[in-house]
Amino acid sequence: MIKDYGLLLFLMALVTFIPRYMPFVILSRRRIPEVMKTWLSYVPVAVLSSLLAPAIFAPAGTLSFSLTANPFLWASIPLFIIAYYTKNLFITVSSGMVIIALLRVIIS
Amino acid sequence: MAIATTVFLVNLRHLLMSAYLAPHLKKMKNWQQALFSYQLTDESFALHSVYLRQKGIPPEAELFGLNMTAQLAWIAGTALGVWAGGMMAIDTEKYGIDFVLPAMFIALLLMQLNDRKQVLVALVAAIFSLLFYLTAENQLYIIIATVIAATFGTLAFRGRDQEEGGH
Asked: For labelling, which of A41, B3, B88, B115 has a CA lying 20 to 30 Å from the CA of B76?
Protein backbone atom coordinates (compact mmCIF):
# COMPACT_ATOMS: atom_id res chain seq x y z
CA MET A 1 0.00 0.00 0.00
CA ILE A 2 1.47 3.28 -1.09
CA LYS A 3 1.01 6.03 1.48
CA ASP A 4 2.80 8.72 -0.44
CA TYR A 5 0.30 10.33 -2.80
CA GLY A 6 2.99 12.31 -4.59
CA LEU A 7 4.76 9.11 -5.56
CA LEU A 8 1.48 7.49 -6.56
CA LEU A 9 0.57 10.45 -8.80
CA PHE A 10 4.02 10.32 -10.39
CA LEU A 11 3.72 6.58 -11.05
CA MET A 12 0.26 7.00 -12.59
CA ALA A 13 1.47 9.83 -14.80
CA LEU A 14 4.35 7.63 -15.91
CA VAL A 15 2.25 4.57 -16.77
CA THR A 16 -0.26 6.80 -18.56
CA PHE A 17 2.37 8.61 -20.60
CA ILE A 18 4.70 5.72 -21.55
CA PRO A 19 2.25 3.73 -23.72
CA ARG A 20 1.25 6.94 -25.50
CA TYR A 21 4.77 8.17 -26.19
CA MET A 22 6.78 4.97 -26.88
CA PRO A 23 5.35 4.42 -30.38
CA PHE A 24 6.46 7.94 -31.36
CA VAL A 25 9.99 7.17 -30.23
CA ILE A 26 10.09 3.80 -31.96
CA LEU A 27 8.08 4.35 -35.13
CA SER A 28 8.51 7.91 -36.26
CA ARG A 29 12.23 7.75 -37.03
CA ARG A 30 12.34 4.68 -39.25
CA ARG A 31 10.74 3.14 -42.30
CA ILE A 32 7.75 0.94 -41.57
CA PRO A 33 7.31 -2.32 -43.50
CA GLU A 34 4.29 -2.45 -45.85
CA VAL A 35 2.64 -5.28 -43.89
CA MET A 36 2.79 -3.24 -40.71
CA LYS A 37 1.32 -0.21 -42.50
CA THR A 38 -1.57 -2.40 -43.60
CA TRP A 39 -1.99 -3.75 -40.06
CA LEU A 40 -1.97 -0.25 -38.58
CA SER A 41 -4.54 0.94 -41.15
CA TYR A 42 -7.08 -1.32 -39.42
CA VAL A 43 -6.34 0.01 -35.92
CA PRO A 44 -8.72 3.03 -35.81
CA VAL A 45 -11.79 1.06 -36.87
CA ALA A 46 -10.85 -1.89 -34.63
CA VAL A 47 -10.24 0.31 -31.57
CA LEU A 48 -13.47 2.27 -32.02
CA SER A 49 -15.49 -0.88 -32.56
CA SER A 50 -13.90 -2.49 -29.48
CA LEU A 51 -14.74 0.56 -27.38
CA LEU A 52 -18.29 0.70 -28.70
CA ALA A 53 -19.43 -2.93 -28.57
CA PRO A 54 -19.54 -3.37 -24.75
CA ALA A 55 -21.08 0.11 -24.40
CA ILE A 56 -24.14 -0.82 -26.46
CA PHE A 57 -24.45 -4.59 -25.92
CA ALA A 58 -23.62 -4.67 -22.22
CA PRO A 59 -23.81 -1.18 -20.71
CA ALA A 60 -24.63 -2.61 -17.28
CA GLY A 61 -21.81 -5.17 -17.42
CA THR A 62 -23.87 -8.10 -18.67
CA LEU A 63 -25.13 -8.88 -22.16
CA SER A 64 -28.69 -7.65 -22.64
CA PHE A 65 -31.03 -7.57 -25.65
CA SER A 66 -34.01 -6.33 -23.64
CA LEU A 67 -35.65 -3.11 -24.80
CA THR A 68 -36.43 -2.03 -21.25
CA ALA A 69 -33.17 -3.11 -19.61
CA ASN A 70 -30.91 -2.03 -22.46
CA PRO A 71 -32.46 0.70 -24.61
CA PHE A 72 -28.96 1.70 -25.80
CA LEU A 73 -28.83 -1.33 -28.10
CA TRP A 74 -32.18 -0.54 -29.75
CA ALA A 75 -31.45 3.18 -30.01
CA SER A 76 -28.19 2.27 -31.74
CA ILE A 77 -29.95 0.69 -34.71
CA PRO A 78 -31.55 3.87 -36.12
CA LEU A 79 -28.43 5.75 -35.05
CA PHE A 80 -26.17 3.57 -37.21
CA ILE A 81 -28.41 4.41 -40.17
CA ILE A 82 -28.34 8.13 -39.37
CA ALA A 83 -24.55 8.04 -38.90
CA TYR A 84 -24.10 6.14 -42.17
CA TYR A 85 -26.13 8.56 -44.24
CA THR A 86 -25.15 11.86 -42.63
CA LYS A 87 -21.52 11.05 -41.69
CA ASN A 88 -21.96 14.00 -39.34
CA LEU A 89 -20.88 14.00 -35.70
CA PHE A 90 -23.28 16.63 -34.37
CA ILE A 91 -26.35 15.32 -36.19
CA THR A 92 -25.61 11.78 -35.01
CA VAL A 93 -24.94 12.68 -31.36
CA SER A 94 -27.99 14.97 -31.05
CA SER A 95 -30.21 12.43 -32.81
CA GLY A 96 -28.91 9.82 -30.38
CA MET A 97 -29.93 11.91 -27.38
CA VAL A 98 -33.40 12.53 -28.81
CA ILE A 99 -33.90 8.86 -29.77
CA ILE A 100 -32.85 7.50 -26.37
CA ALA A 101 -34.97 10.10 -24.52
CA LEU A 102 -38.05 9.25 -26.63
CA LEU A 103 -37.45 5.52 -26.28
CA ARG A 104 -37.34 5.89 -22.51
CA VAL A 105 -40.60 7.82 -22.49
CA ILE A 106 -42.21 5.04 -24.56
CA ILE A 107 -40.94 2.13 -22.43
CA SER A 108 -41.54 3.73 -19.06
CA MET B 1 1.59 -0.86 -7.09
CA ALA B 2 -1.70 -2.58 -7.85
CA ILE B 3 -3.25 0.75 -8.78
CA ALA B 4 -0.35 1.69 -11.02
CA THR B 5 -0.52 -1.71 -12.75
CA THR B 6 -4.25 -1.37 -13.37
CA VAL B 7 -3.81 2.16 -14.71
CA PHE B 8 -1.06 0.88 -16.97
CA LEU B 9 -3.24 -1.92 -18.37
CA VAL B 10 -6.19 0.43 -18.92
CA ASN B 11 -3.91 2.87 -20.74
CA LEU B 12 -2.19 0.23 -22.85
CA ARG B 13 -4.73 0.65 -25.65
CA HIS B 14 -3.27 4.07 -26.34
CA LEU B 15 -0.10 2.29 -27.42
CA LEU B 16 -1.97 1.08 -30.50
CA MET B 17 -3.52 4.49 -31.13
CA SER B 18 -0.11 6.18 -30.95
CA ALA B 19 1.37 3.48 -33.18
CA TYR B 20 -1.26 4.32 -35.79
CA LEU B 21 -0.72 8.08 -35.54
CA ALA B 22 3.08 8.18 -35.13
CA PRO B 23 4.06 7.48 -38.77
CA HIS B 24 1.73 10.29 -39.90
CA LEU B 25 3.19 12.75 -37.41
CA LYS B 26 6.88 12.03 -37.85
CA LYS B 27 7.61 15.56 -39.08
CA MET B 28 6.80 16.94 -35.62
CA LYS B 29 9.52 17.99 -33.24
CA ASN B 30 10.23 15.72 -30.24
CA TRP B 31 8.59 18.01 -27.70
CA GLN B 32 5.51 18.32 -29.92
CA GLN B 33 5.24 14.54 -30.15
CA ALA B 34 5.59 14.31 -26.37
CA LEU B 35 2.88 16.94 -25.83
CA PHE B 36 0.66 15.29 -28.42
CA SER B 37 0.93 11.87 -26.79
CA TYR B 38 0.36 13.36 -23.34
CA GLN B 39 -2.98 14.72 -24.59
CA LEU B 40 -4.08 11.61 -26.46
CA THR B 41 -7.48 10.22 -25.44
CA ASP B 42 -9.94 7.80 -27.05
CA GLU B 43 -11.96 10.74 -28.27
CA SER B 44 -9.12 12.85 -29.65
CA PHE B 45 -7.69 9.73 -31.31
CA ALA B 46 -11.03 9.07 -32.98
CA LEU B 47 -11.26 12.62 -34.31
CA HIS B 48 -7.66 12.66 -35.53
CA SER B 49 -8.05 9.32 -37.30
CA VAL B 50 -11.24 10.51 -39.05
CA TYR B 51 -9.38 13.64 -40.18
CA LEU B 52 -6.42 11.57 -41.43
CA ARG B 53 -8.69 9.29 -43.42
CA GLN B 54 -10.71 12.09 -44.96
CA LYS B 55 -8.26 14.93 -45.49
CA GLY B 56 -4.75 13.71 -44.68
CA ILE B 57 -2.30 15.01 -42.12
CA PRO B 58 -3.88 17.82 -40.04
CA PRO B 59 -2.08 21.16 -39.71
CA GLU B 60 -0.32 21.47 -36.34
CA ALA B 61 -2.48 24.41 -35.25
CA GLU B 62 -5.62 22.37 -35.78
CA LEU B 63 -4.11 19.29 -34.16
CA PHE B 64 -3.09 21.03 -30.97
CA GLY B 65 -6.14 23.29 -31.03
CA LEU B 66 -8.34 20.22 -30.78
CA ASN B 67 -6.19 18.59 -28.07
CA MET B 68 -5.99 21.76 -25.96
CA THR B 69 -9.76 22.35 -26.24
CA ALA B 70 -10.46 18.74 -25.28
CA GLN B 71 -8.11 18.78 -22.30
CA LEU B 72 -9.30 22.17 -21.03
CA ALA B 73 -12.92 21.04 -21.37
CA TRP B 74 -12.09 17.87 -19.44
CA ILE B 75 -10.36 19.77 -16.62
CA ALA B 76 -12.95 22.55 -16.50
CA GLY B 77 -15.79 20.04 -16.62
CA THR B 78 -14.25 18.01 -13.81
CA ALA B 79 -13.69 21.13 -11.69
CA LEU B 80 -17.23 22.34 -12.35
CA GLY B 81 -18.62 18.92 -11.46
CA VAL B 82 -16.69 18.80 -8.18
CA TRP B 83 -17.72 22.34 -7.30
CA ALA B 84 -21.33 22.41 -8.48
CA GLY B 85 -22.26 18.78 -9.06
CA GLY B 86 -23.90 18.49 -5.67
CA MET B 87 -25.97 21.65 -6.12
CA MET B 88 -28.01 20.45 -9.07
CA ALA B 89 -29.87 17.31 -9.78
CA ILE B 90 -29.75 16.72 -13.53
CA ASP B 91 -31.54 13.61 -14.69
CA THR B 92 -28.88 12.38 -17.13
CA GLU B 93 -31.20 9.64 -18.37
CA LYS B 94 -34.10 11.96 -19.11
CA TYR B 95 -32.04 14.10 -21.49
CA GLY B 96 -30.09 11.22 -22.99
CA ILE B 97 -26.77 12.55 -21.69
CA ASP B 98 -25.61 9.04 -20.78
CA PHE B 99 -25.95 8.05 -24.43
CA VAL B 100 -23.67 10.83 -25.75
CA LEU B 101 -20.45 8.81 -25.63
CA PRO B 102 -21.81 5.67 -27.35
CA ALA B 103 -23.52 7.91 -29.95
CA MET B 104 -20.26 9.75 -30.56
CA PHE B 105 -18.36 6.50 -31.06
CA ILE B 106 -21.05 5.30 -33.48
CA ALA B 107 -20.61 8.49 -35.53
CA LEU B 108 -16.80 8.32 -35.47
CA LEU B 109 -16.79 4.62 -36.37
CA LEU B 110 -19.24 4.98 -39.26
CA MET B 111 -17.24 7.92 -40.64
CA GLN B 112 -14.34 5.50 -41.12
CA LEU B 113 -16.11 2.46 -42.53
CA ASN B 114 -15.40 3.28 -46.15
CA ASP B 115 -14.91 -0.20 -47.55
CA ARG B 116 -15.86 -3.81 -46.92
CA LYS B 117 -12.52 -4.70 -45.35
CA GLN B 118 -12.94 -2.06 -42.66
CA VAL B 119 -16.53 -3.19 -41.98
CA LEU B 120 -15.43 -6.81 -41.48
CA VAL B 121 -12.54 -5.78 -39.23
CA ALA B 122 -14.98 -3.69 -37.16
CA LEU B 123 -17.31 -6.70 -36.79
CA VAL B 124 -14.47 -9.00 -35.70
CA ALA B 125 -13.30 -6.37 -33.19
CA ALA B 126 -16.82 -5.94 -31.79
CA ILE B 127 -17.31 -9.69 -31.31
CA PHE B 128 -13.97 -10.27 -29.58
CA SER B 129 -14.20 -7.11 -27.49
CA LEU B 130 -17.60 -8.15 -26.19
CA LEU B 131 -16.42 -11.72 -25.61
CA PHE B 132 -13.37 -10.68 -23.57
CA TYR B 133 -15.27 -7.92 -21.80
CA LEU B 134 -17.88 -10.40 -20.59
CA THR B 135 -15.53 -13.27 -19.70
CA ALA B 136 -12.15 -11.87 -18.65
CA GLU B 137 -11.67 -9.98 -15.44
CA ASN B 138 -9.21 -7.45 -16.76
CA GLN B 139 -9.08 -4.25 -18.73
CA LEU B 140 -7.27 -5.72 -21.73
CA TYR B 141 -10.34 -6.48 -23.86
CA ILE B 142 -9.92 -3.45 -26.11
CA ILE B 143 -6.28 -4.06 -26.93
CA ILE B 144 -6.74 -7.83 -27.39
CA ALA B 145 -9.77 -7.38 -29.67
CA THR B 146 -7.98 -4.69 -31.66
CA VAL B 147 -4.89 -6.85 -32.20
CA ILE B 148 -7.02 -9.82 -33.27
CA ALA B 149 -9.16 -7.74 -35.63
CA ALA B 150 -6.23 -5.90 -37.26
CA THR B 151 -4.36 -9.19 -37.70
CA PHE B 152 -7.50 -10.75 -39.18
CA GLY B 153 -7.78 -7.86 -41.64
CA THR B 154 -4.14 -8.07 -42.62
CA LEU B 155 -4.24 -11.84 -43.20
CA ALA B 156 -7.73 -12.12 -44.69
CA PHE B 157 -7.25 -9.40 -47.29
CA ARG B 158 -3.65 -10.23 -48.26
CA GLY B 159 -3.18 -9.60 -51.95
CA ARG B 160 -6.38 -7.58 -52.26
CA ASP B 161 -4.50 -4.36 -51.57
CA GLN B 162 -2.44 -4.81 -54.70
CA GLU B 163 -5.57 -5.48 -56.76
CA GLU B 164 -7.14 -2.27 -55.57
CA GLY B 165 -4.01 -0.25 -56.10
CA GLY B 166 -3.06 -0.43 -52.42
CA HIS B 167 -1.55 2.38 -50.46
From this structure: B3
- The predicted pLDDT at position B163 comes to 43
Q: How far is A20 from chain B (nearest CA, A)?
A: 5
What is the band of B161 on the pLDDT scale with cuts at 50, 70, 90? low
Whether B108 maps to a domain, the answer reads: no
Residue of B nearest to A22 (CA): B15
DSSP at B98 = G
Same domain, A58 and A46: yes
- Cross-chain Cβ contact A44/B14 below 8 Å: no
Q: Which amino acid is at B28?
A: M
Asked if residue B97 belongs to a domain, the reply is no
Domain count of chain B?
2
Q: How far apart are CA A53 and CA B126, in angstroms?
A: 5
Best CA proximity match to A75, nearest among B102, B159, B57: B102
The alpha carbon of residue B123 is apart from the nearest alpha carbon of chain A, in Å, by 7
Chain B residue with Cα closest to A59? B102
All residues of chain B having their beta carbon less than 8 Å from the beta carbon of residue A75 are 99
Q: How far is B96 from chain A (nearest CA, A)?
A: 4
pTM: 0.89
What ipTM was estimated for this complex? Answer: 0.90
Separation of alpha carbons B38 and B59, rounded Å: 18
Give the amino acid at B76: A
State the number of CA atoms in the 13 A half-sphere of B100 facing the CB: 9
